[in-house]
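#onboarding

Welcome to the new folks! Below is a worked example of what a typical request in this channel looks like: someone posts a single protein sequence, and someone else replies with the predicted structure as tokens. Don't worry about understanding the tokens yet, we'll cover that in week two.

Example request:
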Amino acid sequence: MAGINVRIWPEVHHAYKQVAEKHGLLIGDLFSIVALYTPLLSPATLVYILEEEYDMPHQQAIEVVGELRRHLEGFLKVASQAEGVRGDEEEIQEEVCKE
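Example response:
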């Protein structure tokens, strides 16, 4: 996937960069994985963070996290279906080549 420029706080970028380099990870992928899975696996944490960092009302924070979850679940569904298609493609390719 193509990268998109986003503003990351220098201190946060530094921490992720250090860990990514140490473990041979791409920093953009690490950020993306955290951004992708946090609303799905820890929605209460994200609601709390939005309330604290943005002084956001609780109901609005729930709505924001809910919207993120719906968008990201849709992305994961499409991605997993594409993986399944690739898997099927490989199996069919092997069967066709046997003939």
